[in-house]
Amino acid sequence: MQTHFTDTQLQDPQIREADGILRKCVHCGFCTATCPTFVMTGDERDSPRGRIWMMRELLESPDSVSADTGYHLDRCLGCLACTTTCPSGVDYHHLIEIGRERIDGLVTRPFGDRMMRRLLASVIPYAGRFRMMMRLGRLGALFAPVMPANMRAALAKLPKKLPAFDRVGSKTMHFKPRIKGTRRVILLAGCAQRALDPAINASTIRVLNRLGVEVTVRQEASCCGALAHHIGEQQAAHRTVRDTLLAWQEELDRGDVDAIIANASGCGTMIKDYAHMVGDDPELAAIAERVSGLARDITEILAELPLETVIDPAPEGRGQITYHSACSLQHGQKIHDLPMQLLREAGFEVRQPLEPHLCCGSAGVYNILQPEMADGLRKRKLENIEKAGALMVAAGNIGCIQQLDGDIPVRHTIQYIDWASGGPPPVQD
Ligand code: SF4
Ligand code: SF4
């Protein structure tokens, strides 16, 4: 794609980066076929190609940008399916980040939307506050019929039963294996996941300990910053990223850390991108580089360990399971087959739903900010899961789990592996 930035505009490092990305797009449109929003609406402005065009206009001529551009950029899920499909290697991930940051200063969103974004950025990254909101939300549900759509969507996402508060992450802790192993990892305890489903961290620690891996959780590293980053609350995101990086720096300086583990793939994608995100911050650049280099999804570290040695034999197999591939894992981190391979090693017969590349509509807090589109995608995904026929679903991201859990239970991949290696069943009768 041709661009026409002036020399003055190209002095700006962000514009220079965007220019390099834009020039790679040959406008072939292959990406449109796998873009969930285009699949749902058929509108070119809801496709990667259309959005790339709009972002070029927005960056070249910011004065002429319309509210329409903001609307269609906001409807992008950030699922990155387009990056998997694109034959030209267009880095849509970083282009949309630049586009979103720029549009924030040019277009004013409706009042309710701005307030909701503030609220989400000030509550969800803090497990304690989030838990408090879940309590209050259950009372607030009584008033749902008179609330705006995004409030109703937020309330609908709250779990019916409040889980017990998780101690993992409430202070710095070291979980040592019974038999001393040779590996040590840092685990991100997480914010929303910790409040919504503490069983995921418990399973992660049990499985790693069984495999002889010591697990360290730092209290100060409580959130990866993705949520605030993706909804345009950049100052809040930077504060969170800084706290997390500095806490991990202390731990890395103690030595012997083999990897930094995320068991929510949205967080993993973010941590792997820290080096890019704060690469021009002199205080954080070096530690961000180190952390991004050590970041692994839980399935990646399991693939390096002798999993077969801890799996209980199941000659009859453990049943059929449908694997839902979270976008942040399959498109953000390009990990798609590995979780299925591990589930097979654990004795499950693994199926995939139709359209495995399409987002379920969760996408962080997209399902709260864009409830209509998110709900359409959720229904489509659930229909495909039902057609796959298995009675259990595995996924590697808490957002997808919350979005899809229902008549067919959805649990984290690590919970099934924990079960197969002596842990509790993830689905209780
Ligand atoms: S597939 Fe890649 S090169 Fe083709 S239109 Fe989409 S982003 Fe551009
Ligand atoms: S990130 Fe997802 S929703 Fe956004 S343009 Fe790419 S494929 Fe479409």
List keywords for this structure.
9 strands; Rossmann fold; 50% helix; Fumarate Reductase Iron-sulfur Protein, Chain B, domain 2; alpha/beta; four-stranded parallel beta sheet; five-stranded mixed beta sheet; 23 helices; 429 residues; single chain; binds iron/sulfur cluster
Instruction: Give the ligands present.
Output: iron/sulfur cluster
What's the number of helices? Answer: 23
Q: Give the uncertain stretches in residue-range form.
A: none
User: If you consult CATH, what is the topology of the domain at 312-420?
Assistant: Rossmann fold
| Proper CATH architecture of the domain at 312-420 | 3-Layer(aba) Sandwich
Kindly report the spatial arrangement of strands forming the biggest sheet: 1-3-2-4-5
CATH class of the domain at 312-420: Alpha Beta
Proportion of residues in β-strands: 5-15%
Rg: 21 Å
Distance, first to last CA: 56 Å
Class by alpha and beta content: alpha/beta
Per the principal axes of the C-alpha atoms, what is the gross shape? Answer: globular
Fraction in helix: 40-55%
E-strand count: 9
Biggest sheet statistics? 5 strands, mixed
Mean model confidence by pLDDT = 91
Task: Describe what this molecule looks like in 3D.
It is built from 23 helices and nine strands. Helix 11 packs across helix 23 (413-420). Among the domains are: 9-104, Alpha-helical ferredoxin (Fumarate Reductase Iron-sulfur Protein, Chain B, domain 2, Orthogonal Bundle), CATH 1.10.1060.10; 312-420, Rossmann fold (3-Layer(aba) Sandwich), CATH 3.40.50.1860. The protein is an alpha/beta fold and 429 residues long. The strands form two sheets. It has a five-stranded mixed sheet. Strands 7-6-8-9 form a four-stranded parallel sheet, with helices on both faces.
